[in-house]
């Protein structure tokens, strides 16, 4: 089992991982089915896109209000409450669709509520996750987290398609609700975790502003952490914008098809799983983490840059390598950043990061989409990948000493 300092699979880590697996499995299958269900009911791609847009809004706003409270109250309560609340809502949706007709306006409102809960749940999870990992096992812990969703996605997406045709959306939503509730119950057994206990007695607007100011002042002083966050915001926005370009390329290029594009997810899964296995088994020393992260970033962008210029078989190889590099950099960065941030500021700092990444990422995704309207798709992806490389150089390589401080933290 190893020494206590390096042991990963403790009771709390196992419970949180199990709960995450249960909740994510239900969410993947349910979301897949709902995306088709909404289009079937409305017959409009705009209506489906509006649901996605509505779901993004809380991820920009909610962290600014919820994060200060999470740095004062036990995060476990937010985590458990979020899963139980969303479970009850999904179950109620399933029951509604069994007995009544679908309402698009009602679904938009419920989607907004669920997005608020999901935003709080994600914030609580990211703030609490480092507390259930023993010192020295951070890289392994984030490797496990990085592999969980891709594996479940490969399993649950086709299962969701089967369940959509066999039992229907109402029953699937009831199952999803039950799994979310099961996840919340599992999380309730987590114990002995370092949690904030300052409380909110007499807490008012001035206190909330003061809490936010404390986080802002901390980020002003932490140039390395800030540069990493800035890079993530730009890079994620550009990456988010790639997907519509790839879809359009496969739709318009002779000899390619949507079915061929769908195999990208399988190749990406293989690469990401290999990266998680590598990070789980090989510990990278603190002196080499930043350089390794930079190489993974540059390699990932180079894969994107060359993707659409390759014959199709090599495209699949490219996506596997891209997934491998992308997941490696994500694991190293997440483990380093979450370990570096002080525990009493973790929710607020992560909240700021979530807000900036979502807001800037959404704007950049629109810019990328607009660029695809006036440029050749291959050239557009190549230019954007070059911009991402420039962002990496300006925001992390040029600020190596500041960023290295974050990556070398113990």
Secondary-structure map with pairings?
Blueprint: H1 11-42, H2 45-70, H3 75-99, H4 104-128, H5 138-166, H6 168-187, H7 205-221, H8 223-252, H9 258-281, H10 289-306, H11 312-340, H12 346-374, H13 377-397, H14 400-407
Helix pairs in contact: 1-5, 1-6, 2-4, 2-12, 3-4, 3-6, 4-12, 5-9, 5-11, 8-12, 8-13, 8-14, 9-11, 10-11, 10-13
Describe this structure in words.
By secondary structure, the protein is mainly alpha-helical. The protein folds into two domains: 11-187, Up-down Bundle (Growth Hormone, Chain: A), CATH 1.20.1250.20; 213-407, Up-down Bundle (Growth Hormone, Chain: A). The chain has 14 helices and no strands. The protein has helices at residues 11-42, 45-70, 75-99, 104-128, 138-166, 168-187, 205-221, 223-252, 258-281, 289-306, 312-340, 346-374, 377-397, 400-407. The longest helix has 32 residues, at 11-42.
- Tell me the number of strands: 0
User: Structural class of the helices, strands and pairings?
Assistant: mainly alpha
The end-to-end span amounts to 22 Å
The total domain count is 2
**Unreliable segments of 5+ consecutive residues:** 1-5
Q: What string, H for helix and E for strand, traces the elements in order?
A: HHHHHHHHHHHHHH
Instruction: Let me know the largest β-sheet.
Output: none
Determine the oligomeric state from the structure: single chain
Annotated CATH homologous superfamily of the largest domain: MFS general substrate transporter like domains
- Looking at the overall shape, the CATH architecture of the largest domain is Up-down Bundle
Overall mean pLDDT stands at: 88
In DSSP terms, counting alpha (H) and pi (I) runs of 4 or more, how many helices? Answer: 14
Radius of gyration equals 21 Å
- In CATH's first tier, which class of the largest domain applies? Mainly Alpha
Shape: globular
Q: Hey, roughly how much beta strand do the residues contain?
A: under 5%
